[in-house]
Amino acid sequence: MRTLNDVSYHSDKIVSKLPCSDPKLVARAKQFVILFAAISEMSLYLDILGETRDGIRAE
Length: 59
Known about the structure:
59 residues; mainly alpha; 2 helices; 76% helix
């Protein structure tokens, strides 16, 4: 699993490529990237739990 530092580092890299310099929009974009990463990580975690519980790999 990713740590918060990993997610923060990658969100900074992604947001730095945006063609916008408004601090409020940049902060909002970073929040969105972190939220998306958290949802993706939780989805992966739940998939792993499902595979472990069912004893089969979900395809």
